[in-house]
């Protein structure tokens, strides 16, 4: 196994930069550069010396194999975060026999291979590193801490027991079965199925927390939609003018509302029009607004054509500075209340989120539910189908195992690690 090294902190000027080394040579390299190896998990100040030159004064931390992030012997060098220091230390590391630069995600990959993290935890780690909002951070941390694996293990144990009970009856096929196991089997399947259905129902909310919500501002031309977007964004993202039909393309602005990642969409004013280009803009507006998670109808003088509010959609009068209740993108009146309302609507969606956060998880859960339904069907068909019922339950178990990467893992790894950068 190669010993790998990389800059683990971000590139560029900083107070401190962290270089990480993992593999069999990690501690020996520390000895070469620092003169001695500090006791594990105890930070020690050392001069880094290579080629007769002092490179920097570093805080050195080592971890023993079996007690580190990767599961291998690890060393971390906290150096002064200058481009020149990092370069000099990287050069010194590159000159050591048996060391090579880590590939993107390679530290985490080793953690997975050594059983320090399961596949879902690796995904949680990737999400945590990418997290930009409070809700993303909380959710990613829950996944990183192993929440999916813990739940999956409970479900798995129940289904394995159900399959074992059924298999036990197969051996008695020709005789009277000593006890009827069907009630217990059905109970176990029902418990797991109920949990998985809840997870599936909450997966859309969890995926929204991860990927963000879309909120579309719609309404008649000249209602002040673009002015409102600019006010919410705090910058001139969209062109505004007194000419009705100014906005044609959908303008996107990313922001955080109530701790959630939100993409606000400014859209073309909705009306009947002879103008070919404006009509294309209106079609886009309607399509994007329909696909969005929430719509804010900003009302003006004209009627809204082609789209009407539904469900949680917000309807609010614009240009409230000219009189009446509502919001004004021009003066900021009512904007805080509008943001609070959007936040409340989106937060109510996130309440249903369970532990699964990705399409991959949802598909695995759906596979398991499907297999459990086949099992129930086979059980209904009587004891002569017991073998098939047990096989269906084993398929359900495999679905749960794929959640944490116990099966079907190889083809997923490249995809998952492609989102990691070097040093992670
Ligand atoms: N008094 C007042 N005028 C506003 C307000 N918001 C926008 N306006 C004015 O109304 C006109 C239209 O504003 P826009 O933001 O371009 O309206 P829009 O809804 O994006 O228009 P389209 O993109 O053409 O559909 C401009 O002249 C704005 O200055 C407001 O809150 N109060
Ligand atoms: K306009
Ligand atoms: Mg506009």
> Termini separation (Å)?
18 Å
Structurally, the number of domains stands at 3
Amount of helix: 40-55%
> Could you name the CATH topology of the largest domain?
Four Helix Bundle (Hemerythrin (Met), subunit A)
Strand content: 15-25%
User: If you compute it from the alpha carbons, what radius of gyration comes out, rounded to the nearest whole angstrom?
Assistant: 29 Å
Task: State the shape.
Answer: flat
Indicate the CATH architecture of the largest domain.
Up-down Bundle
**CATH H-level superfamily title of the largest domain:** tRNA modification GTPase MnmE domain 2
What is the count of DSSP helices, taking H or I runs of 4+ residues? 13
Number of strands: 11
Give a concise summary:
The protein has helices spanning 26-34, 83-94, 106-113, 119-130, 134-144, 147-170, 182-211, 225-233, 276-291, 335-350, 359-380, 386-403, 410-417, and strands at residues 3-7, 16-22, 44-50, 53-63, 74-80, 99-101, 213-218, 251-257, 260-266, 294-299, 314-317. The chain is α/β, with parallel strands linked by helices and 424 residues long.
